[in-house]
Structure formats: C-alpha cells, structure tokens
Specification:
The chain has 448 residues and is an all-beta fold. Among the domains are: 103 residues, Lipopolysaccharide (LPS) transport protein A like domain (lipopolysaccharide transport protein A fold), CATH 2.60.450; 188 residues, no CATH class. Helices cover 1% and strands 60% of the residues. It contains one helix and 33 strands. The chain has a 33-stranded mixed beta sheet that branches. A hairpin with a 4-residue loop joins strand 5 and strand 6. The N terminus and C terminus are likely disordered.
C-alpha cells in the first residue's frame, strides 16, 4: 500500500505546543481500522506534535483521544534530545510519554544520558522518571597530557555514573536525583548513599543518607556531603555532621604501612590537579596517625579547628587552634629506627607545624604554651628516662624545651607518613619569662 504522508509543520514556541495538533506525517502501510476508533499503521510511521517528532515501525493511533501506541520500537526527538525504547505510548493531551524495554535518554548537549527499563516522561515539565536498574551518566572529555596547550587533543570520554532504585532527571534544569541504594562511580572515585542529587549547572553532587566516599585508599564519611567538580577534576568535598576521613598508606621498600584518621563536626577538602591541596576540620577537630606495626603508639592532635596544607603530594604546614573552653593539644612519639626514644605532650592556644621536604622542620606553640617531654634528653646518646617540661609562666624547665626530637603529627587523609624525626619545638614564652600577648594565628578560614 502506498505510504501515507502529510506536510511537515513549523516548530512552535513551547508555550503553544501543548495546544498544537498531533499530526501523522508518514506511514508506509495502513493495516486497518478498528471499531474503537483505532488506526493500525506500520513501516516508518512518523508523528509530530509541535517541535517533537515520534517514530516507530508499527503504531496504534487512537485519533479521537490523541494517543499513539508504539508497538515496534519508539524514538522521540526534540531540539537535539533523544528518547528510545522497545515500545511505548504518547498521550498528546497530557504531554506524557511512557516507554518500556531498553530505555535510553540523551539530552541536547550530548553530555548527559540515562538508561533503564521503564520511563515516564512529562514533556512540558521536562521531567523523566526511570525505574528498572536506572542509570544516569555524565560524559567528560579527557585532555591528552602528551599534547601541548589547553586545546590539546582528547583521549576519550571520562564518565560519571549514578545508579539507584529510582531516578528522576529534569532535562531543563539538568538535575538528576537518585533514590535508594545509590552507587556513584567515576575513575577511582566510588560513592554510596541513600539519596544523591547531581546539578549539571554547578557540576556538583549532593549526598544524603549515610554517604561514604572512597578514593583509592582514602575513605570519607559524614551525614551530608557536597562534592564540587570542574570538568574532569574534583575541586572540593564538604562533609557536615560526624565528619571523618580515614587513609591507609601501603608499605614501600623504604617505609612501613601507615594509617591516619581525621574527625570533626565538619570537614572541607580542597583539591588541585587531582591531589589534595588542603584539609580543614571545623569544631571538635581530632587527628590520629600511627604506623600499622606500632598500633599502641598513636600520634594525636586536637583542637577547635585544624588545617593541613599540601604541595606536590607532600604536607607543607599544619595548624591547630584551640577554642574558648580548651587548648590545642598534641602528643607525639619519637622513634629512631625501631627504638622508642620518647614522647612529647604540648598544648597552647595554637600549635603550628612547618614541614620541609615532607618532614617536620619546626613546631611552634603559641599562647599559654606548655609542653612535657618524656624520655631521652635531647642531644644524649642513650635513654635516661627524663621528664622535662616548659610553659609560659616562666618556670625553669629541667631540660630546654626548644628541642623535641621525633615529633610526628597526625596527617590528612591521602597524605600519611610525610613526617620524620628531628623536629624542633619553639616555646612561646618571652625571653624575660613573662606571658606574651596571645598571637592571632594566620588561619585560612576560606580555601580559594
């Protein structure tokens, strides 16, 4: 039978498309008419509703009700966006498409796609709901590091995958929401939670319901998280509520395996060139670090606020600040090779650590500073079991507190084991033994 064809219509503004007619533009065969007012069409069937085009190989057209049922394949396109499925139905009056079987949906940018077994798409609300093993993917373009300049050739796509029990996607706002057993994967990044929202405009992930982020040997937990990204790079991770980060450094030929933990009410991790640039801990900040083969000797630091900074994958500095009701505190164990030489306790308004080549170069305690060292006298070649202390009251210490060997602080997740022996502590006591004014530590409250 000769194909049935009608002329194409001009695309209308979206505000008028709801009232635009549903037009059958093409069908190779007219197979019959049913008493219920249904036309049976086959062979390159094509319908248009305003700017939307729907295609199938076999359709039931309920003309009086403005409903088309696609029985053999379903393909809907509009302004570059695409929806395909094994079969489905389009209701013109409701502006609703339902589809089943191998559902695939892609937005007009080509950077976001969704798959599943079932979908309900509310056209005029730009809202799609997927079930049946749904997945939303965001495609990035990797730059080839071997090519020069920002316009370097690409080496293939990098994909962010979001899965859950139920997925909704707003292709106008470009927001994807996953509910129930959420799993997110990208390169070395793996995330689990109960609910997740991805906002394409800000390139951000919001994680709710026992979120857990794992990157290599680093693990971060909390109550709520926001992950900020830019292109293919993770830029930041904000963790709020019972925040904690755990890191394990595998053993190498020159070092033992190490673990570090950081906890607080909130954490903020800033990234630069795919590496941690800084870690900030807000309120009830606690850090712990130890060699796996020495679990009884845990180095600790605590305060109201803590920040650790990195460069070239090495820690460069750390600061701990006390609060209104408690000082900043630290405890370090000094080992030479495998032999314990001593332990140092220190506290004050702030404790600052300076690093050189990944090793502690200087420790400074400021404001109401005091410290106690248990173990071998600095500079001696054998352990004498001495206890020395110093504080800002002017009391004369038994052993000068300017040398504290073996200081090793807790470190941020992803950067354990950068400290080394031979650190030096500088007390904040004035030369005349009087209490100095409490200094105002230079703490970067906002990471740029």
């Amino acid at each position: 039978m000769a194909a049935l064809r009608t002329g194409a219509t001009t695309t209308l503004p979206e505000s008028k498309e709801r009232n635009a007619p549903l037009i059958m533009e093409n069908a190779d065969r007219f197979e019959g008419y049913r008493s219920r007012g249904e036309y049976v069409l086959s062979g390159k069937v094509r319908f248009r509703h305003g700017g939307m085009l729907m295609e199938t190989e076999r359709a039931i057209w309920m003309k009086d009700r403005n409903i088309v049922s696609c029985e053999s394949g379903m393909r809907i396109t509009r302004n570059g966006s695409l929806l395909t499925a094994d079969h489905g139905t389009y209701d013109k009056n409701m502006g609703q498409a339902t589809a089943q079987g191998n559902v695939f949906m892609r937005d007009s940018s080509g950077e976001n796609a969704a798959t599943g077994q079932n979908i309900v798409y509310l056209r005029f609300r730009h809202l799609a709901t997927l079930t049946g093993n749904p997945e939303v993917r965001r495609f990035y373009v990797k730059k080839d590091s071997s090519a020069a300049g920002d316009s370097a050739d690409t080496s293939g796509p990098d994909t962010l995958s979001i899965k859950g029990d139920i997925m909704t996607y707003n292709d106008s706002m470009q927001v994807a929401v996953a509910d129930g057993n959420v799993r997110i994967h990208r390169d070395k990044l793996n995330i689990t939670c109960k609910k997740a929202e991805y906002h394409d405009a800000s390139d951000s992930l919001y994680l709710l319901g026992e979120p857990q982020v794992v990157v290599d040997d680093n693990q971060v937990k909390g109550e709520i998280m926001r992950m900020g990204m830019h292109g293919e790079e993770i830029k930041s991770l904000l963790v709020k509520g019972s925040a904690q980060a755990h890191s394990t450094e595998p053993a190498t030929d020159s070092s033992v395996a190490r673990q570090s933990d950081v906890r607080g009410d909130s954490l903020f991790l800033a990234f630069k060139e795919k590496a941690i640039d800084s870690v900030q801990v807000f309120r009830n900040a606690n850090g712990a670090y130890f060699d796996v083969d020495k679990p009884d000797f845990v180095n600790k630091m605590s305060g109201d606020y803590m920040v650790l900074r990195f460069q070239g994958k090495q820690v460069t500095s750390a600061n701990v600040m006390g609060g209104a009701s408690s000082n900043a505190k630290s405890t370090y164990y000094h080992f030479e090779k495998k032999n314990l030489k001593g332990k140092n306790d220190a506290e004050g308004d702030t404790i600052d650590f300076a690093f050189k080549d990944g090793k502690i170069d200087e420790v400074m305690v400021k404001g109401s500073a005091k410290g106690t060292y248990f173990g071998e006298k600095p500079g001696k070649g054998k352990s004498e079991g001495n206890r020395s202390s110093t504080d800002s009251t002017g009391a004369k210490p038994a052993v000068p507190a300017t040398v504290v060997p073996g200081a090793r602080p807790a470190e941020a997740p992803g950067r354990p084991g950068n400290a080394a022996n031979g650190a030096k502590q500088i007390d904040a006591k004035a030369a005349d033994g009087k209490n100095p004014e409490k200094p105002k530590p230079n703490i970067p409250w906002r990471v740029k």
